[in-house]
Every structure is written in structure tokens, then in C-alpha cells.
Amino acid sequence: MIPASFDYEVAESVEHALALLGADPDAKVLAGGHSLVPALKLRVSRPSKLVDIGRLSDLAYVRDAGSQLAIGALTRHAAVQGDPLLQEHCPIVSSTAGKVGDPQVRHRGTIGGSLAHGDPASDLPAVILALDAELVIVGAGGERTVAAADFFTGVFQTAVGPGELLTEIRIPKLGDATGWSYLKYHRRAQDWATVGVAAIVHRDNGTATSASVALTNMGGTTLRAASVEAAVAAGSSPAEAAAHAAEGAEPASDTAASAEFRAHLARVLTERALMEALA
Amino acid sequence: MSATETWGIGAPLKRKEDDPLLRGRGTYVDNIDLPGTVVMVVVRSPYAHARITSIDTSAAKAAEGVVAVYTGADLRDDWKAAMPCAWPVTEDMKNPEHFPLAVSEVNYQGDGVAVVLADTRAHAVDAAELVDVDYEVLDAIVDVAAAAEDGATLVHEELGTNVSYVWPLESGTFDESADVIVKHTYIQPPLIPNAIEPRGVVARPEPGGDVTLWSATQIPHILRLLTAATLGMSETKLRVIAPDVGGGFGSKLDVYAEELLAVAIARRLGTPVKWIEERSENALATIHGRDFVTTLELAATKDGKITSLRANVIASMGAYLQLVTPGIPLLGAWIYAGPYEIPNYSVTFTGVFTNTTPTDAYRGAGRPEATYVLERTMDLLAKELGMDRVELRRKNFITEFPATIASGLTIDSGDHHASLDRLLEHLGLEELEAEQQARRDRGDTKQIGIGFSTYNEMCGLAPSRILGAIRYAAGGWETATIRCLPTGTFQVVTGTSPHGQGHETAWSQIVADQLGCDPSEVEVLHGDTSISPYGLDTYGSRSLPVGGAALWSAGEKIIEKAREIVAHQLEVAADDLEYEAGTFTVKGSPDKEMTVKGAAWAAFAAHNLPDGMEPNLEATATYDPPNFSWPGGAHAAVVEVDTGTGDARLIRYVAIDDVGTVVNPLIVDGQVHGGITQGIATALYEEAIYDEDGNLANGTMAMYLVPSAAELPSYELDRTETKATDHPFGAKGVGETGTIAAAPAVINAVIDALSHLGVTDIQMPATPERVWRAIEEAQQ
Questions:
Q1: CATH number of B364-460+628-779
Q2: To the nearest whole angstrom, how far is the Cα of A130 from the nearest Cα of chain B?
Q3: What torsion do the CA atoms of A70, A71, A72, A74 make, to the nearest 10 degrees?
Q4: For B697-742, what is each residue's pLDDT tens digit?
Q5: A15, pLDDT greater than 70
């Protein structure tokens, strides 16, 4: 459990971090370290350099930005979980942050680190995708905003390129007519989701008029359950809509579950999430 | 409450061991830092079965900080004997010769092929990546049942078969024409023991060719004997110390390659050598448990009296025979009938090689495997007979003790009805069944099930003559010394080797109770071959049944000698003295008294001893148990199963154990807690998963599912106390009872929860996917 050797630099500012990252294409960003450090110890990740952004405290915030809330990438899960703005305007984010890993992970891990890591088994990507959030990426060429639908590009791959840094996540405020749920199945308290479902449901008099549904660990990236969304929009019941949950998904088979069982779990959890969001 | 009730036998004394351990002041092997130490890292095969065609160590040797690199061929002549197996269970048992590093062929993923020695661990790990091994990959065989078949891929070509041995035990004839016969085949997958402290070794060369070996081991005495033999050293040249050891569960009851390598290389280099196992390395390089496929048949009359039992056990040895690998299945051979009186008894064991990590002792060792198939089949039989499962168990309990059972041994004591009665008092079965029915009637997603396991096991290894009769190489006795120091304190030296069990506390309580002192006045020394009497270490729930009895016997010798000293000093006849809790009084003259402590001073001063008596009050006793130890009990699990996700979760667990006299109820509860947890883990969570090429697919703690407190309810524990008649103060072993009892209770509960859906079988661990598939299949 000793990493391969690497250089280590502490970033003093975003600009400094970008300069360090730009100078070394094999450098990796170290934020909370709770995904990266285990990978280093197993030597499955062998960066030439770690750029530690852990001291950029001005990247840790939750701000009201009009119709949106802006979350600094370095905000730790525990802070996201406890944030009053999020709890009031977008509780699916604060609630799901409280379901990440275990207390130690939540007090070190960051929202930006979790999203930029691109792990299809992580919880927050599905929530971000279901919310149609926007992600702010800065690089040598300046700042750009990427839609969540374009952010997750592959297994452990995102739109954050070499020399770039994810700095902010912008999520919509949800109104009173919007229900939500994030459900995941995991064996032990600290385990990754075998499958997870994020559902945002627009309600009218107890029935769903439309829904955004995104799945965790049902493929190489988090993905939208488009058939479920279409079924809800067409007036299907949660049970009817949930039957479509695995359509188009290509989940992996591993020691936690076969692809077939993941598809089953996606259907079960989607129905439950839609019901919970409607309740 | 008298004084002894607060600290003698039976008192809930907090453990002496805990203060330093909880403050981080324990001394584990990795805490031993000797000047000039070189760190050893083992290069391991990534393949389960391959020929080594070449090894190039030149780049590794040239790397920064590297002191030496050795291959199996380099060290071959250091070994004067192959790796030891102390239990050749049959005369014709096949035992492939193997050495601490593979020389020409690797037979499991993780088999060692080379070692790197460097000044730091980081340098050693880096250089290990530079050892360039060319392999010719061979077909691997993983599935134990398939490996036993003719024509299977062979693990060891030179043996011509994968079968190491066939070992039968038969008494009577199976009643083929019985009213009812049930037969079922069960898979018990391999398990990774996962002691909280992985293994570790430090070997220090001493002047004159001696070596001191610190090892995270359960067996310093046996390790010394066999390390010396393997290296061709005089036993007197080797001192083995087991310092604080962080658990073992049987996985440290072995002589491992790294222990032998460290000693050999320390002698070669003349510097201390240290090897500390990494956690994911532990998953491959430390023995696994279980990996059985068992077919069990029970024959019974239509009113539920069981007449015959037949078991056919196929047990994986893994790739090689380790210290007691072939004997592990046999430790269950005598108890496939559990607590039941079954006159016709036949069990056959086939030990089979596979390209997987060698198996060996893991908590319960052969007895969980026996109890699991029996208790599962008891439920099947009850269903077949249309009989209540609790009544079926009651009807077949052994009730007269001592009981000579069909397998040939004699159970000294027990009271199974008492344990079951107590269990039912705690359980509230009627309410649970009403709740179960209500959920079924409502069609709830979450269903509950109740499962039982009534068990009887044999532990306290073991009567030496019986061990000899079943071809184990050593005996099963144990030794203890008590030294009464002049200050009125007591030094105990035990041949047992605790690694988390709390012997220092329990042994202190026994001495305090017997010789009249406070437990704080007792010092317990152990785990160092230079200070302890020759002992046989700790495994098989033997320490209290055998080591505790040896200690008691030594105490009796102390009392007898003290009696003569006191009689002499008080000028009375020895027969006129009465003894209780450390004090001799003269019959009829209660004011005349003298304590053992007083006698100890008199023996130390030696001014006024009886003519011819040796000074000093010290005694050593070696105790060879007349019988095994026979704990038993009744357990019940209540599970909730989510029929949507397939998630099965414990909501209650009630355990009634009968371990005879309890020395310390806190320690006993702790043993039962841990044991139950490992049994639940077996039933619901843990399984070493190999792919068909023999790659261990879940060898990290992220993927190998050791359950945590968050997954488990608080257990409801109680005891009945039927004293062992074959033990000086009535104690029975407790280290393995929970693991032996728990798994079938849990699986029976999962099946019970789903029985209304037509589910009759679920393979363990009952993963959500297996539960889901069982429901799907039953619904078709």
C-alpha cells in the first residue's frame, strides 16, 4: 500500500493550480483525496505530480445566484449536507451528499472531486445530471460552462481536460411543486451504490407531469433514463414507467451484481424513487 | 457479594489487556524496529497456474536501496525439508512438495516467486515491480467439485490426480428403506479470515547462528519446532516470540513461507529482516477457510425419529497442504449429527487440490461446515415430515450424558432442552409468527423469517491419544507454571498464546480464585519460547479447556505443597487443615490460620521448612485432556428480506450458549459476539470469489464484504450452564461456538421469510442477487 513515487505541489490560487497542471500533462488534482489516495496506494493511479488544491478555501462555498445556487468545487460533502440554502432550495443535493460513503469520507471528500473523478458508482453525478446542472471549468483559455449532460464522458472520464480545473457547480432551485428522491442499493453502509436512482418529479395534484431520472452505476457514466421520463410525461404510473428503467443501459457485471440484476434493481429503485418523489 | 465474586471465576472483570491496547501502547510486530533492518517484499504470481520460464532480477538488484533479491531457485538449498504439513490424515495422502518460494511452477494467484530486500519499504516495493518473471500460463481449476472429477485439469501434474485423500468414518448402515429420506447438496464458499492485524515477521540474527523470530502467530512453540526443522537448525538456536497479536481466527495457526524466508535471509545477510503483510496481500497470501461441497442425507421415521445420516464432503485444500489443511474437514467428522441421537452414521471426506490459496483453519474449522449442512437439512426434514422444526429438533436431542455417539466419541455433558427452552423464552416466537403472517397477508415488500440452529460442537483440542489415532503429528496437552513470589504475588507462565482472547485476565481470575489474591497480583507471561514452558499454543477453543485446566492443576500442586508448609509452621497435621480461597485454617481452632502467600514467604526464606522439602513455592503442571470439550446451545435469527431488492438483513439474533463454567462473562460475551458476527458474515456477506482462471476477484476490503456494526443488530445473549464433567472446574470452549451456530440459523431464516413464495433453497452467502433469483425461480 505504498504509492509509486510522485511530486507534490500545493496550489496557492486557482491560477497557480492551472499553471502547475498546465506544465505537466500527467499531473492529477488532489482535493479531498478519498478517491485518489486509495487508487494511488493500489498503484492503479500513477500520476507524475499531485497538485493539492485543498488550501484554496475560496472554492468552498454555497451561494444564492438568483434562479440557481452555486456550489464551490471544494465544498466538502458534510458542508453540502448541512447547508441551509441547499436544504431549502435543492434538498436532493444536500440529502444525497449525506449518503456519500461514511462520515470520514464526507468530512474530507469534496463535491467537485467526486464529480471530476467520474466514477459511475458515485452518487452525486446522477443527482447533478437529473438536475440539468451546469459545471464551470477553468483552464488556460479561461472559463467555460458545461451542461451536466455533456460533463460525464466515460468511466473515470469527464469534460475536465488536462490543465483544467472544475471550480463550480450550478444547480437550479426547485419549487414547491417539485418532488425528489435519491435511492441507492448498497450492501454495507460504506459501500458504493450497486445501483442508484435520482428522480426529480414535477407534480400536479399528486400526479407526475414530468420527471427527470438519472441512474448511478448502470453504465460507464451516470445516464438519464429517457424512456422512464417519456413514460411519465405520457401519463404512465410509477410502476409502468419504472419498467423502462434499464432500457438503453449497459451496466457492468462485477462481484457486487450481474448486469441482469442491476437492470432489475434499476426498475425496483426507479419505481420507489418516483413514488417517494410524488409523496 | 464476597470478594471472589467480584474478581474470581465468574466475575465480569474488565480486561487487563485493554488499557495499553486502547491507548495504542501495544507492541505488534510492526512496532518492532531494530537497527539495520532490511525490509522484505514478496513478488507474487499474478497467475493461478503457470510455469516459471525465467526470472530476471538484474533491474531490481540495481534499484535504489536494494540489498538483495532472491528467487526460489536461489534459496532452494536453504530448505532442508519442504513446507511442513503436520496432519497426514491417511497413509497414502498425496502431499505435493512445496517450498517457501516456488521454483518452477506457481499454483495459485499470490504464490511467491521472489523476494526483494531493501533499506526501506518504499524501495522494496518499487524494486519488486522490476523483477521480471516470464510465465507460461497453464489451465487452472477453481471449482472444488469439478476438480474432484476424473479428467479434471490437474493442479499438480506429477500427482496424476487432484484428490489428496479420501477419509471415511462409518458406523451402522444407512436405512435406505426409511419412511422419509431427505438429501441436499450445499456449497460453502471459500472465506478470507481477515484478522485485523495482517501477518508480520521480524527475524534478527544473533551471535553464533541463533535467530530470534517475532511473528504475528498463534503458535510460537509449533512455529519454532517446524521452522528449525525446515531450516535444519537446532531448535535451541531459534527463539520465537509472539508479541501482541491482533487476531488470528485460525489464519495464524500455520507455518508460513514468510516466516521461513525471514529466518533464512536474516542468517544469510546477518541483518534483521522485516516483512509486514499488506491488507490486499493478506487476501491472497494468508490461508482461506471453508470451500466445501457437501451432500447430506437424513433418514427418519414418519413420526420424526432420525435413524441415519450420510454425508459426502468434498473439501478444497487449495493449491498446497499447509500445516493442518487436510485435517480441517475432519475436525467436523464426529459431529455431523450435532446434538441429535442418530444411530447409523457415515461420513466421507475427499480432500481436493484447486488453483486457489491454500485452505486451513478458520474459526470453527470443520465444525461450522458440519453444523451448517445438518441444521439446513433439519429444516428440510421438518418440511418433508410436515412437522414443526423446533419439535423435530427436540424429538432427536441427546438427553442422557455421558453420551457415546455413533461417530465413536463420548460427550461428557449437555442439556439441549434447557438451551432451547431458554431461547424460546427470549424469542417470542408466537408474536414473530403473527407478524410474519400479517406481512404475508398484506403482501408486504418486506417479509420476515425466523431461523433456528441447535448445535453441539467438539473443541478443546485435544486428547493426545485421539490425535495420535487420527494421525496428527503432535499431542494436545498444555502446560502452565505458577511461581509464588515472596511478595505475595504470583507469576503465571502459560504455554497458550493469546491473540485477543484475554488470557491475561482470565488466567489471573483463575489463580485469584484458587490461591486467594487479587487478579492485579497475578502476572501472566506467554508467547515467548524462551520464557514459557513447552506449550502447544492457541487454537480450536483449547486455551481454557486445556491450558486453563493445566493452570488449575498447577494451582492444586501449589496448594498441596503449601499445606505441608503450613502444617509444619502451625505444628498441626496436614489433614487437620482446611483450605478455602487462599487460606488454611486448623479444624476446631479457627484463629489459627496461614495463607498461601504466607507459605510462599516461608518457602522463599526457607528457614523453617519440613525436613527434606525443597525451598521455593512453584509448580508446573502439564494437562492432557481426557476428552474433547463439548459446548452447545440454541440460536435463532430473525431476518427481514426486501423482496424487491433481495436484501436480507438481520433484525434480531438470539443466542443461548452452554459453555459450562464461565470464568469471565464479559470475555465470553465478546467471544460469542465475534463468533456470531463471523457466522452471519458467512451467511449473508463474505465469499472469496475467483474467476475461472483463478483470479481472486474481490481481494480488497472494498469488495470483500466484512460486515460492520451498521449492518448488524445488537445480539440478545444468554446462557445455560451445564458444567463439563471432564474438566476440573467445569469449563467448556467458547471461541468458535457463535461461528458454528450462526450461519444455518440465518440462512434458515432467509428461506423461512420466502417460503410462502415457494423458495426452498438459497446458497450462501445470501446476496441480494441470489435472493432475487431464488424468488424468480420459485415463481416460475
A1: 3.30.365.10
A2: 23
A3: -170
A4: 999 999 999 999 999 999 999 999 999 999 999 999 999 999 999 9
A5: yes
Does residue A253 belong to the interface with chain B, where contact is any CB pair within 8 Å?
A: no
Distance separating alpha carbons of residues A147 and B566, to the nearest angstrom: 92
When divided into structural domains, chain A yields a total of 3
Rounded CA separation B336/B339 (Å): 9
Query: E strands of A88-238, at which residues?
Result: 134-139, 142-147, 152-154, 157-158, 165-172, 178-185, 195-204, 207-216, 223-224
Question: What are the chain B neighbours of A272 within 8 Å (beta carbons)?
Answer: 644
Residue pLDDT, tens place only, A128-141: 999 999 999 999 99
Task: Indicate yes or no: CB of A261 within 8 angstroms of CB of B772.
Answer: yes
A108, B68, B326 from B471: Cα distances, Å:
56, 41, 11
Chain A environment of B768 (Cβ under 8 Å): 185, 187, 194, 257, 261, 265
User: B660 - beta bridge partners?
Assistant: B731
Residues A121 and A28 in one domain: no
For residue B710, give the nearest of A188, A255, A264 by CB distance: A188
Give the separation between CA B307 and CA B742, rounded to whole angstroms. Answer: 25
Task: List A170's β-bridge partners, or say none.
Answer: A70, A134
B4 — pLDDT class (breaks 50, 70, 90): low
Q: Judge: B280–A42 Cβ closer than 8 Å, yes or no.
A: yes
Dump strand ranges (E) for B211-305. 211-215, 238-241, 273-276, 289-300
H helix or E strand, kind and range, residue B344: strand B344-353
**Predicted local confidence at residue B532, as pLDDT:** 83
Same domain, A91 and A45: no
Same domain? A20 vs A86? no
The minimum CA-CA distance between B113 and chain A, rounded to whole Å, is 20
Binary contact (B644, A258; C-beta < 8 A): no
Other CB atoms within 10 Å distance of the CB of residue B780: 6
Query: Which residues in chain B have their CB less than 8 angstroms from residue A191's CB?
Result: 702, 705
Give residue B590's pLDDT band: very low, low, confident or very high (50, 70, 90): confident
Q: Which residues on B lie below 8 Å from A6 (Cβ)?
A: none
